[in-house]
Write a structure and sequence with these properties.
Helix content of chain A: over 70%
Largest sheet of chain A: none
CATH topology of the largest domain in chain B: Fumarate Reductase Iron-sulfur Protein, Chain B, domain 2
Largest interface: A-B, 59 and 64 residues
Number of domains of chain B: 2
Structural class of chain A: mainly alpha
CATH architecture of the largest domain in chain B: Orthogonal Bundle
Distance between the termini of chain A: 88 Å
Radius of gyration of chain B: 20 Å
CATH class of the largest domain in chain B: Mainly Alpha
Low-confidence stretches of chain A: 1-18
Number of helices of chain A: 9
Mean pLDDT of chain B: 96
Number of strands of chain B: 7
Structural class of chain B: alpha+beta
CATH topology of chain A: 3 helical TM bundles of succinate and fumarate reductases
Shape of chain B: elongated
Number of strands of chain A: 0
Strand content of chain A: under 5%
Bound molecules: protoporphyrin IX containing FE, FE2/S2 (inorganic) cluster
Shape of chain A: globular
Radius of gyration of chain A: 24 Å
Oligomer: heterodimer
CATH superfamily of chain A: Fumarate reductase/succinate dehydrogenase, transmembrane subunit
Number of domains of chain A: 1
Chain lengths: ~250, ~250
Amino acid sequence: MSWTSCGWPPYGRRMALATRDRRPPTVRTLWDSSVGKKTVMAVTGLIMLGYLVAHMAGNLKIFFGADEFNGYAHWLRHLGAPVLHSHWALWIVRVGLVVSVVLHGVCAFQLSRRDIKARPVRYAHTKARTSYATRTMRWGGVILALFVVWHLLDLTTLTVNENAQAGHPYENVVATFSTWYGNVVYIVAMLALGLHIRHGFWSAAQTLGVGSAARARLLKGAANLLAAGLTIGFISVPVAVMTGVVN
Amino acid sequence: MKLTLRVWRQKNADAPGAMAAYEVDGVSPDMSFLEMLDTLNEDLIVQGEDPVAFDHDCREGICGACSLVINGDAHGPERTTACQLHMRSFRDGDTIDVEPWRAAAFPVVRDLVVDRTALDRIIQSGGYVTAPTGSAPDAHAVAVPKPDADHAFVHAECIGCGACVAACPNGSASLFTAAKVNHLNVLPQGAPERESRVLDMVAQMDAEGFGGCTLAGECATACPKGIPLQAITTMNKEWLRAARTSKR
Ligand code: HEM
Ligand code: FES
């Protein structure tokens, strides 16, 4: 009797099970692995990306005037009513975003530190081409983290926004883009965002295992479209204020 | 051809190393890169100096022993192994930099020789199939669909040289590990360990101090056997499936 007649693969499967150690819970497996941490980055990145698409689309309401924009901002506070109390939906989104930003940042920091430690000695003969993606993702990410802090102080808490008035978002946006540094900060950050998403969206597809040769063009195209759409959409607001289209 | 070589010289794992320059004359364009180094070593021995230590074995591109970073490229400018690289890829009068694989997980043993046993330990952690011993099975006893067989063959080509690690800006062994996971996980013979294989091999890769994948793509460009970058995507997919479903 040959071994194949004793039933492959159940024969082997039984053997493997008998010797297998207990595995830790899935969350532990994810957090302890470089592939798992990348997965956390991909999922939190996609959550933030989804939020940004909605945010950008909402911003475009500024082109329909102060009443419509301020009305929209007011509506956001009552989103989900009457099921949800006022501001609840807003806070649910805020908590989700804070958790995403923190997890994304912590994983980026830990993975980057591992990557740098894994390559302690440089080659004497260096090539100019190496890792445009890796460099721009790290520095771009840091720029975005700093921008998020500035943006909250500027248009949410109004701490750094001179001439700002609570409850007048339209006028506050105009105030922000009436200063040169307001324009510089937002435009630089949105260009960094475009680059981050261009590599990040495609990257996330590979991390989550949905990329394939057949889908490569589709994914790259979607990454470019999202990156360009978000960057142009966001930047259109400061440009409109600068050129007087919005005032 | 007459060449100037700048070669990494390092007495042992603990000694500091440095690039040293040598002139090599009488190089034929038909020589392999390793034969050119043999010529240099013969000169060095005659002059009473230590020959340059480098790894090599088959010299026909199938064993994965040779491991030279030539002018910043793992295995040099052609898509092949250093032993199959010929001097006709260079010009008379060129200066060529020769360095060892660089990665924390690949400590230099001497000159251009690095310790690659970390890759062996990744294989030991799951790069095998559980097969009952005894007489050889009939070749066609287990049916394998043609596309699966092709997929397995593409990834079975890996010779474990470590060029992917040497080329990666993060010193990651993802392409190496992914090649074996793709090769065995697609086959019925690999099915019993499908989940434990990918979980254990990735865990071992992390434990050895290799970096993670940022999809820079340098590994697939350097690979002398053309293992595709897509292998890593499929490994991630297998890993996520295993992390979700693996029996506790
Ligand atoms: C808190 C500020 C941020 C930092 C410090 C940061 C940093 C990074 C870094 C270093 C990577 C590459 C990680 C690696 O491959 O090892 C990355 C990937 C990524 N980032 Fe960010 N980022 C930030 C904000 C954002 C935002 C606002 C988005 C939303 C669009 C985003 C979306 C992504 C995506 C989708 C990836 C790809 C994940 C993957 O490769 O699977 N990031 N980030
Ligand atoms: S010496 Fe065997 S592959 Fe180069």
